[in-house]
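<context>
A single protein, sequence plus fold
<entry> Chain with its tokenised backbone below
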Amino acid sequence: MKAAVLRQYGEPLSLEDLDLLPPQDGEVLVRFAASGVCHSDMTRMEGKRPSALPIVLGHEAAGYVEQVGHGVTHLVPGDRVVMSFLYDCGQCFYCCSGRPNLCEVGRSILRGGTMPNGTTRLRRGEEEIHHMVVSSFAEMGVVPARCAVKIPEEVPMEAAALIGCGVLTGTGAVFNTSAVRPGDSVLVVGTGGIGLNVVQGARIAGASVIAVSDLNPDKLAIARDFGATHLIDARTEDPIAIARSLTQGRGVDHAFEAIGNKHTIRQCYEAIRPGGKAVVVGIAEVGACCEIEAISLPMNEKVLTGSFYGSYRPRLDVERLVDLYRSNRLRLDELISRRYRLDQINEAFHDLHSGVLARGVISYE
């Protein structure tokens, strides 16, 4: 099968013919239909978040179950599935505490590039190729069955693929991590694929003020289509001052940082009211540090927290997002800026780096 392989940081992906071993216990073979082009993959390609090499990236995907391994009872060949890139074992402290997005096993295999049992399924001759759990920059993949969530026929595969990362992460930060309520005020900093889903999550949650800040006026215009009520051109305007002006000087109830930049993280913290919550959704570079005035924590009871993968619960949250899509409240098709073939994958990442995509999709159908 064809797959795009990362062999060296800072270099383009190479399109190669790989072998795929059959699924073992608790695993499924999936024929991918679509895979999103995500900033997280780009940071790994650049070496900012090191991975085991060589590796097949791609983690935002949907496809069809072709074969199931021993012990898999909730899926059968032919099922349409959305992929979760974070394995949840169901047994560790975090899974048992209702925090599967922090699963100890899932984080370990995400770093190590293997299946939960420490082995791999991708080969080029005798050479082992590492996984990014899903590894959807390939025609097919073997994944843990717990990472495949069944979806109904009505959801197009390209739209479904986006649920697997960008939509879960953005809307989950609103619904799960920050619990935005009707009438709340929200600031969103950054309008890439994650930021746009924070925006539409806030709209769905009933926020009355959804202020959005970005340096790119074209992306701000897209944010308005997804529910932004106020647009802030960060090249010339101060998001903190505007957030306060929209809330009688208090600051917003919730601020979401969707870039991963220490300066905009602090900006979000400064923009929230006393008792407000600043949520960091963007992934910063390893070693980046953000300073805040320590006395503001006890004196103003501000909360600065993170949201990893939207504090997700895979099966519950995917079902909720599918229902929102079918009721025309969640916009998925409109997120797709451009479609690519697998052999155009480096062009897709060039476009992502240039800032011209809300979301690009690799289509296999």
In short: The chain has two domains: 2-166+311-363, 179-306. DSSP finds eleven helices and 19 strands in the chain.
